[in-house]
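Note to self: keep these together.
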Amino acid sequence: MIRTLLFLILATTTHAQSTCSVCGVGKEVGRLDGIFAFPGQPAVPCGLLQNAGEIGAIPINQCAFLPPLLGVCDCQPTSVNQDTPAPISPAPVAAATDAPVDPTEAPVDPTSAPVDP
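Structure:
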């Protein structure tokens, strides 16, 4: 696992042409703790594989082959839709009120800081 993580960190230092959505366009990994295993490669958690694609550590020419192989990762439509506005709460909002403030007089003889006891 540590070897895989080190590989992904080192791979991020190379120049990547583009990012890769490992599940395909408009989809994301639904099971981050799923383990993806491919013959001849180390087993990798699906969440780590998705992150590697997002940061450009997976070559774009290999990215197209991944979506059909990621059944264990439970690929789902992307949950974040930036066109959807935040929900509006029907709860009433209280009018702003002035907080009670007791004015205090400024110190007459300020002392220099710090003050030793």
